[in-house]
Write a structure and sequence with these properties.
Shape: globular
CATH topology: TIM Barrel
CATH superfamily: Aldolase class I
Number of domains: 1
Oligomer: single chain
Length: about 230
């Protein structure tokens, strides 16, 4: 984790975001998998998924100016940036942060639960929308209006906990014609569903989705900040 120069909390000038951490790692998911990527993890999340692996980002954090964030991102010297959480869109400063990163010339992705409106996200950003399955415990939070906004630049992700989740996700793919809109990823919930089992189901159904294994967990396990 990198240390940033904290913005003056008494200042009302400029936009700020509350950060848990900024770190350089390998992108382990979605279309940008494998690229050295700076992760900007914003603090806070209104959801409580059963399999959440970033509970440490629910609370705490420190406020930083956008200038401080961009300076720290630049220090890492790579072109790919992922804004994540928690749920980054829960902070109003997330939208201008995404635009500022795009303006600075980065390849920017956003990891969002899809429970909040994605319509104001800069069109240059690749939006990775995690549609919550029944096994997540947060299915009711899905904002299905977001699915009408998806473009080929975006991706939809399903984290599959069991066979019931798989059948539900398969139905969503069909109902909303998701593979006609963007790339769809199915990922097994780490330590809950063996990846090979999920792969077998996808093969059996000839499902037009991409099987995903979280590369960062293959490399480093569940180490935070990796």
């Amino acid at each position: 984790m990198s240390t940033l120069a904290t913005a003056d909390d008494s200042s009302t000038v400029g936009v700020r975001v509350k950060l848990t951490e900024i770190f350089l790692s390998i992108q382990g998911e979605a279309n940008e998998v494998g690229w050295p990527t700076v992760f900007v993890r914003l603090t806070g999340c209104p959801l409580r998924c059963t399999y959440c692996d970033t509970e440490y980002a629910f609370y705490g954090g420190q406020w930083h100016s956008l200038e401080a964030v961009l300076a720290e991102v630049a220090n890492h010297g790579v072109k790919h940036v992922c804004v994540t959480g928690g749920e980054p869109l829960a902070q109003k400063g997330c939208i201008p942060l995404l635009t500022a990163l795009c303006d600075a010339g980065y390849h920017v992705s956003l990891e969002t639960s899809g429970a909040l409106d994605i319509s104001l996200v800069d069109s240059r950003v690749s939006r990775v929308v995690d549609l919550k399955t029944p096994g997540s415990g947060e299915q009711a939070r899905n904002r299905y209006e977001n699915l009408q906004l998806l473009t080929p630049r975006d991706q939809v992700k399903f984290v599959i906990c069991d066979r019931a989740d798989y059948d539900w996700a398969r139905q969503q793919v069909s109902t909303y014609a998701l593979t006609d809109k963007c790339t769809v990823f199915f990922s097994s919930s780490f330590a809950q569903l063996p990846p090979a089992q999920l792969a077998d189901w996808i093969i059996q159904d000839r499902l037009p989705v991409r099987m995903q294994v979280q590369l960062h967990k293959v490399l480093w396990g569940e180490t935070p900040g990796k």
